[in-house]
Structure formats: structure tokens, C-alpha cells
Amino acid sequence: MISPYVIHLLILIGIYVILSVSLNLALGYAGLLNLGHVALFGIGAYTSTLLTMNGVPFVISFLLAGLTASFFGFLLILATRKLQGDYYALATLGFAFVVYSLFLNLTDLTRGPLGIPGIPKPNLFGFVIGSNLQYLLFVAVLVLVSVYSIRTVVESPFGRLLEAMRDDELGLRVLGKNTKMLKYKSMMISAFFAGISGSLFAHYISFIDPSTFYINELILIITIVIVGGIASLKGSIVAPFVIILIPEALRFLSLPSSILGPARQIIYALVLLFILMYKPRGLYGKIDLE
Amino acid sequence: MSLLTQLTVNGLIAGSIYALVASGFSLIYGTNRFMHFAHGISVVIAGYILYSLFTVWKIPIVLSIFITLVLSGIFGLGIYRLIYLPLQNKKASNVILLMASIAILILFQNLIQAFYGADIKTIGYIKVGKGLSFLGAVITKLQIAIIIVSLLLLISLYFFMKKAKLGRDMRAVSDNKELASIVGINQRRVSDYSFILGSALAGVAGVLIALEQNLEPAMGTTLIIKGFTGAVIGGISYVPASVLGSYILGVAENYGIWFLPSGYKDAIAFVLLFIFLLFRPSGLFGLKRRAA
User: Residue B262 pLDDT more than 80?
Assistant: First the structure.
């Protein structure tokens, strides 16, 4: 059978597929350069964790994780709807910082930097997903559902409108389309899937702390989406395999653990820089990032 | 009363450091029109270079500081020439440059961590002495030096921008790129010098932080957010405005401790940053037409 190590990697890859496909919906298709996606991921993780640990059934917590993240996605657009370009990107980054400092400082709720250990395994109507192999199947099903839903969205007339907005927002407005509504809808859908991937992450790792949802993780998610290619769902499905697996090669070098963590981040940062400089369309990208 | 003076003094000390970070950031933003987010890591690198030179290799402090500042300037120039300039030549958008900049920050932060370790480093140049009492506030000699050094540097920067040929060229480029190149100002040269000078200012901030506080690899992100927030509060592309904004931020953070638990100190900056980006991106003293 598959080794536990491979199962572990596949679960993580599955979670990152949902995360990167959802970011690509906002960033690639709708052209919303959201650097706060990592915060939505974190909001999902904390929501689901706090709810299940206070007795709410997993299925409800899971859905609420998505809906809460979606609500924050709504707030993010509400707040940033007038900004453009790097100002928009920086405001979303600012949003990520604000959420991070809330995780850190709302200690009554989140235990601050100590993090929350002992997050229970998902309980689906009485059936506890105990083993990692079961968890992998569970993640795989959700990956299929998420990718299928997002694919349906981007291939629908609504998805065409999103791409039109990305390419020429003013032109679309001239045609009488409500671009603000498009921004709200696309961001809320994107955030919903970020939220549920956060829930999947929290219940798998069983421990979360604020630093999991900060700038290092942000670089990882952005790297995955850019490597896969802007506005390419295929890219966002393939890239997590590549990006999660590359640093695993470091394990065979038997580096001390104090070097291993930074080495991983160094690789992500170098890959991102390399792609931006030499292959800005990534593996399967259709368009340039603007 | 003494609490108020103490918080004000602490705010001015913090503001001085932020102002040094913000002035370099604004200088680079003004002449190049993109966000050099990796500016925060220039500060940290300077701190660690000083640590190596002075604490590890025992080079005299004045010489150590001098070498640190030179290397900081070279680091800034290197980043510009090796990464930003090739990207700009490929017509990369500001957002690409911003992402590249965040990648550079993370890259060097982790290189420092791999090389020096994640634990805190101290320079140990000045033994912690008893603070002086000033209107009921306690302030150490080094902290007074920080405020004076920053003010002197920022005032000289002001006159440099006002009077010197290079400074005026920088302002010209910042004001209107096309017009500046029509009157024969070499943009590349101005960009080179803005990165050298801006990063050397970050180097000064790094030296002062290293002398007064502890060094940590991850402090670059917080520093650039503070410097950037200060710049946004004042007015991002105008150096004196971003300096004023930084002092306002320093004092606001410290007064905030009156109402909020001290853990929220960083959150105050984040929230101010967010509010200004949304409602007044041109800052308090910036020009209105800069609004994005």
C-alpha cells in the first residue's frame, strides 16, 4: 500500500489544490490581486476549530468556515472596491496583517501565539475520519467537488464576464454590466473555498497558530498560483504537486531541522523570483499578470 | 504627567527608527514608482552585518558602522540592478515588482535565519546604563543619540533634496518622469542613487536598532510595515511627509497602549495602514493628485 509519508503529502497537496484553484478564481479570472487569501484560509481554519471544539458538529463548522471566510471576502471587497493595481494588492496585504494581529491578540479566543492544539478529527454524522488514508479520501472528494464547482463557475457566462472585467473593466461597464457585483460574487466564492481548505488543514494538522497564516504561507500560495499560471485551473492543480514536492528532496540531505525550515522558504522565494523574471506565464498560464 | 512624557519619548524613539526606514522607502518609491517592500530586509541585513563585523570579528565600532553603511548601499543597488531592472525592462507591472519584492524579503530573511540561526543576537556595544530622567520620563543616552542622529540625518536629507544637483534630479524624476528626461536627467543614474541612498538610510536604521535592541531574522516584515505605514500616513512619494507620518505613527502606537493591551501595538499600525490606504491613499501631507 501507499506509505504514510506519501499519504501525508497527498493530503497537503489536495488542500493546496483547493486553496490555489480558489485564489486563481479571484486573481487569475477576476483580476483581483488578492494578497490576503492566506488570511481567508486562516479565518476558515480558526472558525472551524473554535466551533468544533465548542461542540458544534463538524459538518456545520466546516460549512460555516467557508461562509465566514466568504463574509470576510465580502468585507474585503467592500473596503477595497475603489483601489487598483499595487494599491489594491497592498490593501489586501494590509488585510492579511490585520487578521494576523487579531489571531495573535484575541487571546481569549485564539490563545494567541500559543496556538490551539488537539483539534478533533472530522466527525461526519457519527463516522469519525480517524486514519490518514480515510482523510485522504475525504480530501480527494472535496478537491473534486471544489475544482468541479470552480470550473463550472469560470466556464459559465459569469466566468466570461469575470475575464472581461479583468481585461477591460471600463469597457464592461460601458456595456452596462455591474462590475462591482462581479467583484463581490467572485471574491465571495473564492473566499468560501479558501475557508473550507482552512478547515481541512486545521482538522488534519490538529494544531493551528497565527504564524501558520502569515507571510511565509502567503509566499507559498502565491508561488503555487504563479507557477501554475494565471487563469489556468489546470496549472493550479498541477503546481501544488510540483511546489510541495520540490522541498521534500531536502529531507534526503539530512539537514538539521534549524536549516530545513528556512531552506524550504528559500526555495519557494527563489522559484517565485525565477518564474516572475523568466517565465511569467508559469506552466499553463494564458495571460500575463498585470 | 510622567506617563504622558514617557509615552511621548518612547513614541519619538520609535518614530525616529520608522522615519529612517520610511524616508529611504519614499525616496525609492518617488523616483521609481513601485513598492520596494524588501526595504525592510535591508535594515535587518545591516544589523547582522554590524553584528558580524563588530561583535564577531572585533573590528572597531566606527569602522564597522562605516563598512555596514557602504555594504547596505551596495545591497540596495544590487537588488535594483539584478532583479528590479531586468523586470522593468520586460515591462513588468507594479504588481509583479511588488511580488518580486516580497519574495526578496522572504528569501533574505530565511538566508539570515539559516546562517545566523533564529535566536536573538545582541551587539553588546553599550552596557545598559541607568537612564536619565527628563520631565519624569526615563531615557537612556543611546536613545537620545538615536533621536538626534535621525533628526540630523533627516534634516541633511531635506537639504540634499532641496539644494544638491542629484537631490534636485531625484525630485524632478519623482515629480514628472517625462519632463525630467526631456531636460536631460539620466533616469537610470537617479534610480541607482536612490537605491544606494535609500538603502544606506535603511542601514542607519539597522545600525541603531542593532545597538539599542536585539536582532531577529523576522523583524524585517514588521519594520517595513511600520516604515511603509509611516510613509502612507504622511504621503508616500514625498520624503518629508513620510518622515512626519512616521513620527505620528510612533507616537500614536505608544499612546495606544493607554487604551489597549500592549499586544495590540503592532495591530495599531496595521489598522492605520489599512484605513489610510482605503480613505486617504495620498496621506495627510501628500499631494492630492497622487491618489490612486
Answer: no
B263 burial class (0-12, 13-18, 19+ CB within 10 angstroms)? middle
Assign B291 a pLDDT band (cuts: 50, 70, 90).
Answer: very low
Closest CA to B229 of B76, B75, B17: B17
On whether the CB atoms of residues B285 and B238 are closer than 8 A, the answer is: yes
Q: Is A5 within 8 Å of A130 (Cβ atoms)? A: no
pLDDT digit string (tens) for A85-129?
Answer: 888 888 888 889 889 988 888 888 888 888 888 888 888 887 888
Q: Which three cell numbers stand for residue B287?
A: 499631494
Q: Do B226 and B102 touch, CB atoms closer than 8 A?
A: no
Which among B217, B195, B220, B190 is positioned nearest to B205, based on CA atoms?
B220
Distance from CA of B102 to the nearest CA of A (A): 8
A269 touches chain B (CB under 8 A): yes
pTM score of the predicted model: 0.89
Contact flag A269-B107 (C-beta cutoff 8 Å): yes
Supply the pLDDT for residue B288: 52
Distances (CA, A) of A66 to A32, A211, A274: 19, 21, 33
Contact of A95 with chain B, judged by CB distance below 8 Å, is answered with yes
Chain B residues touching residue A102 (CB < 8 angstroms): 267
- What interhelical angle do A4-24 and A215-228 show, nearest 10? 80
Question: Cell numbers of A217, please?
Answer: 504561507
pLDDT tens profile B127-184: 666 677 777 778 888 888 889 988 998 899 888 888 888 888 888 888 888 888 888 8
A220: which 3 cell numbers? 507559498
- The model's pLDDT over B222-257, given as tens digits with 9 standing for 90+, comes to 899 899 999 999 988 888 889 999 999 999 999 988
Q: Decide if B107 and A277 are in contact by the 8 Å CB cutoff.
A: no
Pairs from B48-51 (Cβ < 8 Å, separation ≥ 24)? B48/B112, B48/B116, B48/B121, B48/B210, B48/B215, B49/B206, B50/B123, B50/B206, B50/B207, B50/B210, B50/B211, B51/B116, B51/B121, B51/B123, B51/B210, B51/B215
Q: Chain A within 8 Å of B281 (Cβ-Cβ)? A: yes
The answer to whether residue B292 scores a pLDDT higher than 60 is no
Residues 23 through 82 of chain A touching chain B, CB cutoff 8 Å? 33, 35, 79-80, 82
Residue in B with minimal Cα distance to A275: B100
